[in-house]
Amino acid sequence: MNQLREVLELDYPRLIEILQTPLEVGKPVILPDFFIDHFVVADTLEGMVEGLENLAKQGGGNLLGTTQFIRRGGNAANLAAALFSLGIDSCLVATTDEYGASLLRALIDPDFDLSHIHTDGRLSSTVSIELEYGGRQVNLMVSDSGSAADFTFSELTEPDLQAIRKSSLVALLNMNHNKDPATLADELFEYVKDESKATTFLDMGDPSSNPSIVEPIAGRVLSADKIDILSVNENEVLWLAWALAGRDLSWRTNTSRPSSWIKAAKYLSKETSIRVDLHTPDFAATIVEDISVVQPAFQAKPKISCGAGDAWNSGSIYGTLAEMSARDRLILSNAVAAFYIASPKAIHPSISEVISFLLGKPLLKDIDEKLLRA
């Protein structure tokens, strides 16, 4: 192991000491979605497609040999649950129906505050198919957006707004289901900046199935000096750079190059002065204009990939509220995500489990040394 790698791993004892000190902060507010996630875990895409085709040819039937389970889902609900596991109470604001609310009560810790769940809407649900394709664990989602499609700032009640005014951080996620995400983000974060001292956090979500959301979010939200932290994966960062640069197609080429992802994150941060947090399967980075810190991901055999970004965000938000260094925050975020994806039942870790994970001296993924000096 070279000297730089040794330095990266020497940070664990300091981080562990920080994690052993209880964190006391104002409740973050997380919105706007809650989904019921039905996981279907199979071996390979090719095997599943072949099995379904054989059933279709005979006029229907039952595909056996999968593992299935139900979990609470939605980026906001997953993030709130992950933060709760880390010891941070948060305020989840989402709209569902009475049936959805009863399912959420059954699927989340009984001590979690559900007083801001609205029940005058429609259940949002997703089938998440987890399998291997091309040597990589992937999740294929089939969703009914339900009330996540219609959520607007005007739905917030006075108790919701009061929670925002008192919050330490307001996080808006999963914009790809919403019919008018730019307006929701613009109105919400304008209120936050006018009425509170909370940090503002945005995770747009994957726009591939709804690319029309990207330009309004880039133009009306990222450029409006209302966002403090932008969380993106390697796909999302290129979409947003493309939009912010006026549909510059150079950002949509070389999409598999990690150096392009970091370059796009730097571009977004320099143009908007937003802290950009980039999380990928192999490394994570935090960028503030020209200053970047890159940390390799931990080696972990993935059992689940749906929700990995939410797990990563929970570590990043914890680190932000604890005022950790960028390096410590990235290590924590990567540890939370690694623990989660290696869990067969999509379980988020507690602080004590994160500490045990780090004490086990987990191996880092091998990445290009040039990225570590980006």
Spatial order of strands in the largest sheet: 4-1-9-10-11-12-13-14
What percent strand? Answer: 15-25%
Q: Note the gap between the termini.
A: 20 Å
- Top-tier CATH class: Alpha Beta
On the 0 to 100 scale, the average pLDDT is: 93
How many whole angstroms does the radius of gyration measure? 20 Å
Structural class: alpha/beta
Looking at this structure, what is the CATH superfamily?
Ribokinase
Number of helices: 14
Number of folding domains?
1
Q: Which architecture would the CATH scheme give at its second level? A: 3-Layer(aba) Sandwich
Largest sheet: 8 strands, mixed
Silhouette: globular
Percent range of helical residues: 40-55%
Q: Kindly report the CATH topology.
A: UDP-N-acetylmuramoyl-L-alanine:D-glutamate ligase
Unreliable parts: none
Give the number of DSSP strands: 14
Q: How do the SSEs run, as a string of H and E?
A: HHEEHEHEEHEEEHEHEHEHHEEEHHHH
